[in-house]
Amino acid sequence: MSADIDQIIKRSQEVCASTGNKLTEKRKNVLTVLLASTIPLSAYDIVDKYKAQFQESLPVMSVYRMLDFLIQEKLVHKLETAGQYMSCAHITCNHQHETPQFLICDRCGSVKEIGIKKHIIEDLERSIQSTGFALAHQQLELHGVCKQCQAISK
Amino acid sequence: MSADIDQIIKRSQEVCASTGNKLTEKRKNVLTVLLASTIPLSAYDIVDKYKAQFQESLPVMSVYRMLDFLIQEKLVHKLETAGQYMSCAHITCNHQHETPQFLICDRCGSVKEIGIKKHIIEDLERSIQSTGFALAHQQLELHGVCKQCQAISK
DNA sequence: TTGGATATGATATAACATATCATCCTTTCG
DNA sequence: CGAAAGGATGATATGTTATATCATATCCAA
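The joint structure predicted for all components is written out below.
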């Protein structure tokens, strides 16, 4: 485990402790698998990587439960448009989480998580207000082509 | 078929003709099923409704193909976060389509399609520009609770 | 009328997700 | 200490969304 990942895990344990929950060995391992990946993974991808990395087979049911837990602790995001999961890019940040905005490359599958500007969200909310709709978990998933893939196709 | 739906279908036929394509009987029926629904439907939902409405069984494979066609003609939208489909609320409008923005009620499943303000999209694009990412099909799916459901829960 | 293009059918399977009941492990409290 | 309770995980089955592939049918143009 790289020093970086080690540090993020340590911070994750603190996050869980602060909510009165436990980052068990297996939950920690699932998070580690996600941290080690440059692209988001499906629950079934995680089963495979987990087996390769830890020589231990995990039922997909358990992976889903552990993902639910990690999402609840805000250590992991689910990409709804892809049915995939990725670790939060800001686990070690102390500041409050902004509304996450994901730039999903439809060519290579990489995803960049950027914070969305507050005033854009505010504009969006204002634009919605007249309809009486109450926004829930705000998360924007934007599809396109990343810089690297654009360079390649030229 | 209601007069409203009848008119939308007529307009849809013109749209297809203008792109050199045909709104066949079955494609028209699939669109009719979607137009008649107040909530978005999955491909499998459409199979069921189609059977009830037209006394004819359609393979789900065909439904997916027809949906692909209708989406290409911009008569139908796919909600990526839900795996469901709905007819475009603006088929009979002549103006150019704005970036669609969907307000999805997580309680009752209803979806409201509203046009997003141009300046918000421009802000979003500017916010993304620095990363070198090229946006593709722009569509925002926002989850929350609609006005009616808020009223009920009070 | 025939031949190519487009549309649809049939079958199989992949990929993502949940329901349910059983088992195991830890914590707590008498 | 030891049993009860609650949380975490395992095992099995099944539901839901989507695609691959090959076959058949329909339509239009040369």
